Amino acid sequence: MGLARPHKPTNGFSPRWVFLFCIASFFLGVFVVDRFWAVPDPVETDEEASVDKVQSKTSHPIVNCEKKEASFQADILSQVSQTHDVIMTLDKTISSLEVQLAAARASKADNDEGSPMVTEPGAKILKERPKVFFVMGIITAFSSRKRRDSIRETWMPQGEELRKLEVEKGIIIRFVIGHSATPGGVLDRAVDAEEVQHKDFLKLNHIEGYHELSSKTQIYFSTAVAKWDADFFIKVDDDVHINLGMVGSTLARHRSKPRVYIGCMKSGPVLAQKGVKYHEPEYWKFGEEGNKYFRHATGQIYAISKDLATYISVNRPILHKFANEDVSLGSWFIGLDVEHIDDRSLCCGTPLDCEWKAQAGNPCAASFDWSCSGICKSVERMEEVHQRCGEGDEAIWHTSF
C-alpha cells in the first residue's frame, strides 16, 4: 500500500513572489530617498549656524552688569570730588574777600580813631600776607618784662632761631601788647627799646588795661588775620609753659576742619557778687543766680581756625564783650556751626603732672597751675618747669606737621 504525499495549504501568494516583492520595495525606497531627501552640505550648515550666532548676539547683546555698575559708581565719586573741590575753592574765595573787607574796616577804624600806630592800606597788607601754619600771640602787659624774659630764656626761640621757625615751620610767635593812654610815653618807649632788641612784638591799636582784655583779644585776632594767612591763631598768657612741637602736632590733626575751637573746655559758675575776682556784671543774662557759664575754653591758652579768626575780624563792631575774655570768646561761637575740641594736653598741671607725662614720652602741649590761672611765680619757676616738662629744645625741628 503506498503512502500519499502531504498537501501544503496555500494562501494565494507564492514564497518566491514574496521574496521578489521585498527586493523591489527596497530598491524603490533607496531611489526615493536619494531623489527627494538630499543631505545638506556640512560646510553650509556650519556657515548658517555661524550667521545665526552673529544674529543672536546682535539681537541680544551681552551686558556686564557688574562692570557697568562699577563705572557708574566711579562717575558719581568723580562728580562728588569735583563738587567738593568747587565748594572748597568758593569757600577760600569768600574767606579771602572777608579778610579784605576786615582789613579795610580795620584800616578805616584806625584812621578814624587817630591811632598812633602806623597802618598800611588794607589791600597792601593783604597782598603781602605770608602763608603760615599758626600764629601764637602771647598776651602781655607793660609790667611783665620779667615774664617775657623768662619765656625767651626757655621755650621761645630767639633771634635767628625765631626767623628760622617762621621760614621752615610756618610758626609765628609774638608778644601782643597795645599802647599806653599817653602814646609815646615812658611805657611805650620801653617796649620800643625791647622790640629793637628782640623783634618779637605785635603791637595793637589798643589802650592797655586788665579790664579791657576782651577787647584786646578781639583786636589781636583782627590784626593777626590781616597780617598773616595762617591756618590757626593761638592766644596764650605770658605765664604758661609751651611745648611748640606738641602744639603743632595737636593743631595738625585738625587742619582739614574749617571751623574749630580748641582748648580745655570748662563751665564755671557765674559770679554775681560784686568785688570778687571774675565778677560778671551781666550775670542776669545767664539765668538764675548760681547758674554756670556755657562750655568754653579756659583763657590760659586756646586756638581757633582761620575762618573763626576772620569771623571775629569781620564782625568785631557787633560782637558783645563780657567781663571775662574767655567767656566773651565762647559767646561769639556759641551760635555758630563750630566744632569745640576739648584737648586736655593744653592744660596739664606743673610738676609732677606734666613731668610724669614727659617721662612717659607724651609731653604736654601746655602747662600751668589752675590755682594761679598760670604758673605760680612764673618768673622764678619757668626754667624749672621747662627742664622737667619740656619736650627738648630740638623737638620742634624734628617734628613734621
From TrEMBL:
Q: Where does the UniProt annotation locate this protein?
A: Golgi apparatus membrane
Task: State the UniProt keywords alphabetically.
Answer: Glycosyltransferase, Golgi apparatus, Manganese, Membrane, Signal-anchor, Transferase, Transmembrane, Transmembrane helix
Enzyme Commission number(s) of this protein: 2.4.1.-
A single Gene Ontology MF term assigned here is: galactosyltransferase activity
Gene Ontology CC annotations of this record? Golgi membrane
Q: Fetch the PANTHER family from UniProt.
A: BETA-1,3-N-ACETYLGLUCOSAMINYLTRANSFERASE, BETA-1,6-GALACTOSYLTRANSFERASE GALT31A
Membrane-spanning parts: 17-38
Q: What does the record give as cofactor?
A: Mn(2+)
Q: Which residues form the DUF4094 domain?
A: 14-107
| Pathways per UniProt | Protein modification; protein glycosylation
Which one Pfam family would you cite for this protein? DUF4094
The membrane topology term of the UniProt record is: Single-pass type II membrane protein
Q: Which classification does the entry list for the species?
A: Eukaryota, Viridiplantae, Streptophyta, Embryophyta, Tracheophyta
What is the protein's species of origin?
A: Cucumis sativus (Cucumber)
Predominant place of localization:
Golgi
What this protein is called in its record is Hexosyltransferase
Q: Which Gene3D superfamilies match?
A: 3.90.550.50
What protein family is recorded?
Belongs to the glycosyltransferase 31 family.
